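Title: [Solved] Nuclear transport factor 2 family protein 3D structure

Original question kept below for reference.
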Amino acid sequence: MTRASDWLDGYIKAWETKADEDVRAIFTDDAEYWFRPNDEEPVRGIDAILESWKEPEPGVPVHDLAVLIENDELGIVKGTVDYPGDEKYTNLWEVWFAPDGRAQRFVEWYMTPRESDG
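Solution (posted by the thread starter after getting help):
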């Protein structure tokens, strides 16, 4: 496994469990979590990240995520996340690694499908 794929596995586990220890295992204490790349400010620090992860989601997500490219400092993850009966997203994530392999900065880039004419 690679640093980015290990991190992604941890992210998926934390997403499913919402357990504080699982979230702490993938983000540094001083991590920045950008829900959108153009937000004025990120969610800053592990306690704020933990709090933000407690917000309810529109359902149980079905995801297809994979590491696209990585080096020692950055992993790029691509894929889709579908909340059946609600929204489906196409994602590109930036995962900026601390030396210990946890994310020090995480940026979500996501899009919703275009409206079809038919």
